[in-house]
Design goal:
8 strands; binds magnesium ion; binds adenosine-5'-triphosphate; Rossmann fold; 343 residues; alpha/beta
Amino acid sequence: MRASALTFFNNKGGVGKTSMIYHLAWMFASLERRVVIFDLDPQSNLTAAFLNEDEIEAVWNPQDEASTIYNCVNPLADVGDIAEPVLKKITPHLFLLPGDIRLSDYESILSEAWPNSLGDSNLYRPMRILSSFWQVMQMAADEVQAEIILVDIGPNLGAINRSILIATDYVVIPMGADLFSLQGLKNLGPTLRKWKKQWQKRLENWSESDTASSWENFHLPRGEMQPIGYLCQQHGVRLDRPVKAYDKWVKRIPEVYRRSVLDEDSNVNGRLEENHCLATVKHYRSLIPMAQEHRKPIFNLTSADGAIGSHANAVQDAREDFRQLAIKIASKMGIEIGTDLVS
Ligand SMILES: Nc1ncnc2c1ncn2[C@@H]1O[C@H](COP(=O)(O)OP(=O)(O)OP(=O)(O)O)[C@@H](O)[C@H]1O
Ligand SMILES: [Mg+2]
């Protein structure tokens, strides 16, 4: 079975993508799903959530192992090919391909390959480069028999993110309830549709080319990038801002989501009832630094970590909220999850 790749994407920064992936990854693993996390944001915040500085330094300076995403794809910048990824095992169900600040260098390689992939000859190399993230994802998922690939990316619409989205089956959009997030949503939807269309054109060009017949075992991603909903964050709300202002923006999200992401006419009957909000993400306040300090998700904090009194209740609530969300997201990806948690 092929693993499904899910990317959390919004070109508005700071909307909780990395924190959400970190928590969902742990929750999927508790639910006994095998997960590979790809940190494809050159800022590597997700990697820093899992690994300490010594561990990060070791993966950034390996003895010729492809221990980061950059080390896997960088041989393509020269005459080499993709290197087999070496994953970090976090738990028996959870694996990480660490991020790398040098990944930004790969942006220009991808930009160069983009027009070349529409030519009528020598298509293999540009198509290999443009699908390189997908190729590495398949290798990684096969190696550990993962069912789910979770992908964290930076907040921009550049060539790296375009290639990541091409490698993606499903997209979740984390949002803040503010003008900037709403504006981000307005250009996100059309951008996803444009990338999808442009990739389809390249797939057609490839399959009609002479090159394709000599590379029968070379597989390419379909570039589905299907949006499965959005998450609304409460934590971005300024404490001095009235609740009314928050509500005002929250109410506007469904229509903008339908119009710009799903390309639906919001006046179509029946559509308005469909709720694309996967969850409202609570403001976890002091539990966030507590969890960061102990390098664990907030729902695994214990009294020994300092989660006592009302914090202990909040930890239990968070566990249930993330469990529900993981089950909901999995179901939208066609993965059914039993409801028993493994401790
Ligand atoms: N539910 C939450 N409650 C409180 N604080 C949160 C919550 N989720 C995230 N944060 C905090 O908000 C900040 C931004 O979160 P995060 O880094 O996950 O966002 P991001 O979308 O990945 O940002 P970037 O666009 O820079 O990659 C961080 O300081 C994080 O600790
Ligand atoms: Mg991030």
